[in-house]
Amino acid sequence: MPEQTTSAAAVLDTEDLRSTIAEILDVDPSEVTDTADFKEDLDVDSLLALEILVTLERKYQVKMEESNLQLMRSFKVVHDLLAEKLAA
Amino acid sequence: MLTSLKGSWCLILGASSGMGRATALAMAKEGANIFGVHFGTAAQQEEADELVAELRATGVQVSFHNCNAASKQTRAELVPVLKELTGPEGVRVLLHSLAFGSLLPFLPQEGQEDVITPRQMDMTVDVMGHSLVYWVRDLYVAGLLPRGAKVFALTSRGDGRVMPSYGAVSAAKSALASHVRQLAVELAPAGVSVNALRAGLTLTPALLRIPGSEGLARYATDSNPHGRLTVPEDVAEAVVMLSATDSSWMTGNVIDVDGGEGLV
Ligand SMILES: NC(=O)c1ccc[n+]([C@@H]2O[C@H](COP(=O)([O-])OP(=O)(O)OC[C@H]3O[C@@H](n4cnc5c(N)ncnc54)[C@H](O)[C@@H]3O)[C@@H](O)[C@H]2O)c1
C-alpha cells in the first residue's frame, strides 16, 4: 500500500475511513456498516470514541471538539462530520 | 535521607490538567524533568503545548505524549522512550492521575434511561484503576524503578462513599486502593514505595463532568475546616514533599490531602 502523504490525507475515501475505524474497534470492516450503532451494536465506549476522534484528527488534519464525542454514534454520522470538517 | 529532585525524572499520567498539571509545574520548579502522558483532542493539545512551554522555561527536560495511557500499545511505545531519556537513573516519581470514566447510574432513573454498559464499566475501572498496575510492572521490568522511587495514585472519597453516577469510578477507586497495597508489598524488597493520595474536592474539568458537582462543591466549600476547596497545587505540594526522601518506609497508605474535609 502506498504511504499516506499529508496532501493525500485530506481526501476522504469512504472505505479507507471504514477500515480505519474498524481497526480502532478491532472488528472486521464489514461490521462497521453505515448505520450500525457504535454503542449498541459495536460495543463502543467513550474511550474508544475518543480514540476515533483523535485518530481522525491526525489522519485528516482536522480539529475536533470534545463535544464531537457525542457524535461518535455510527459510521455515517462520523463520515458526515469529517466531510463537513474537511470542506470547511 | 532527604534528597534533591533536581535532574530526576517524574512520569505523570494525566499531565495536561488538574492534579497532574500542577504536579508537573511543582516538580519542574524543583528541577525535575517531566515525562507527561495525556489524551485529548486538538483543543486539549493546545493546552498541553502551553504547559510544555511553561515547563521548558524552567530549564528542565520535558517530553509530552498525547495518547491513551490505558492501552498496551502506548506503554510498549513509551517505556523504551523513557528508558532512552532517563538512562540508568530511571523514574524517580510516578504519578497516576488519570480521570476518564463513564458517569452513568447502574439502574435506570426517572428521565434518565441510560445505564452503564459492561464495556463502559470495564473501561472505567481499567483506566482509573488497573492501568496503575500495568504501568508499574512495565517500568519495573524495564529496570526503570530504582531504589527510592515513589509511586503515587490519586483517589477520592468516592472510594468509600456513594454518589449518584459515580458507581464505576467508585469501583475503580476501590480497585486502586487495593492495587496500592498489593504493589507496596510486592515492591518493598526493591525499596520502592506506593501510596494513594486522597484529594479533597477540587474544581477541575473531571469534577465538573460529574452530574451534580456544583452542589458537591458548594457543600465541600462550606464544610471543609479550612473554609475552601482543595486546589491542584495542594496535591502537587504533597507529591513534592513525599518525594523528597529516598526512604520507602512510608508505603501502602491512603493519605488524605483534603484540609480535613473527610473528617467532618
Ligand atoms: N477533581 C477532584 O475533585 C478530585 C478529587 C479527588 C481525586 N481526584 C482524582 O485525581 C485524578 C486526576 O483528576 P483531575 O481532577 O486532575 O482531572 P482532569 O480532568 O483535570 O485531568 C485528567 C487528566 O487525565 C488525562 N487522561 C484522561 N484519560 C486518559 C487516558 N486514557 N490516557 C492518558 N491520559 C488521560 C487527561 O488528558 C488529563 O490530563 C483522578 O484520579 C481523579 O479521580 C480528583
- CATH superfamily annotation of chain A: ACP-like
SS summary, helix count of chain B: 8
Please give the share of residues in helix of chain A: 55-70%
Strand content of chain B: 5-15%
Domain Carrier (chain A): 11-86
InterPro entries (chain A): ACP-like_sf (IPR036736), PP-bd_ACP (IPR009081)
Protein name (chain A): Carrier domain-containing protein
Pfam families (chain A): PP-binding (PF00550)
Structure overview:
The complex is a heterodimer of chains A (88) and B (264). By secondary structure, chain A is mostly helical. Chain A has one domain: ACP-like (Non-ribosomal Peptide Synthetase Peptidyl Carrier Protein, Chain A), CATH 1.10.1200.10. Chain A is built from 5 helices and no strands. Chain A is globular. Chain A starts with 5 loop residues before the first helix and ends with a helix. Chain B has one domain: NAD(P)-binding Rossmann-like Domain (Rossmann fold), CATH 3.40.50. Chain B is α/β, with parallel strands linked by helices and 264 residues long. In chain B, β5, α5 and β6 form a beta-alpha-beta unit. Chain B is globular and about 55 Å long. A 7-stranded parallel β-sheet of chain B has the order 3-2-1-4-5-6-7, with helices on both faces. Chains A and B meet through α4 of A and α2 and α4 of B. The site of nicotinamide-adenine-dinucleotide has 29 residues of chain B, from α1, β2, α4 and α6. Chain A: InterPro entries: ACP-like_sf, PP-bd_ACP.
